Hints:
There is one protein chain. This protein is 48% helix and 13% strand. It is of the alpha/beta class. The protein has a seven-stranded mixed β-sheet with strand order 1-2-3-4-5-7-10, with helices on both faces. Helix 3 (84-102) runs parallel beside helix 4 (119-126) and helix 3 (84-102) packs antiparallel against helix 13. The longest helix has 19 residues, at 84-102. The mean pLDDT is 95.
Amino acid sequence: MASASGSSLSLVAVETSGGVATITINRPDVLNNINFVVLHQLQLAFDGAIADPAVQGIVLAGAGKVFVVGADIEFFIRNMPGDVPRIVKFTEAGHRLFNTIDASPKPVVARVQGAALGGGTEIALACDHVIAAPGGSFGFPETGLGIYPGFGGTQRAPRKLGIGLAKWMIFTGKTLSAAEAWKIGLVDEVVPPDQLDNVCRAAALGQHAFAARPARTPDHDVVEAFFARCGAEDLRTGVADTRGEAAAARAMKLVAGKAPIALRLAESMIDRGMQGTLALGLQQEIDHVTEIFTTADALTGLTFRTGKQLGSPAFEGR
């Protein structure tokens, strides 16, 4: 009979059973958003699971209806502009954790039952496998908040999806359904909710045969090529050549309301990062934290989000 053990770190729960450690972010009241305490407790949980000889694989989950909706935006606002070095430390802690997950010698499976946005998509990308229920969703809303994906999104997304699709996701902020994320290769499989736990456990143990990936749509090919060849500023200002493709024109409209500085930095980090190692690319995200979080656009976008206002923030490019 499989043994089971459990422990709680207040915001992160760990349960080990049958060779699988399930690590659950337990903040459903705030949609499992990531703060300093969560990062610290996740680091302890992963370090412990990796060191535990009884653990053969790891499942990362979020409690409640969502997986992870990103970082704690109110933390950012509280530290802008007076204590941006604290945001730098937060970003560094996030990178340490995500690199631990990425480098884990034991398989790590992201169990995505609901929204995985911003840092939620980034932490999923650091895992070996991403398995979602039909209600799962993925996206990078950061450029619409005046910032860029800062937990590895500018580096792991292009390495998994290719430059064109990564830029499409990051520049537009489009939220993808689990089914669409599966088609483009972000998700490894979509399974019924009642099978999610069993499939994740089997995948963590290396005992799951993944279903064949469904075919991408022609629109995916269009936006991939369009975003690979066109610059962020041309996309934002609507002058990029769509070559008459309706899918390209629709996607370009989504870039129009995004923050210019955030787009420029994200584009630069993707392009430069893909020319070198993952480690060097990830360091860029840390190096530019002070620059982005001291912009007026970042404060505008983040406070707009917390105010739950309708429409889009008015970015000024400064």
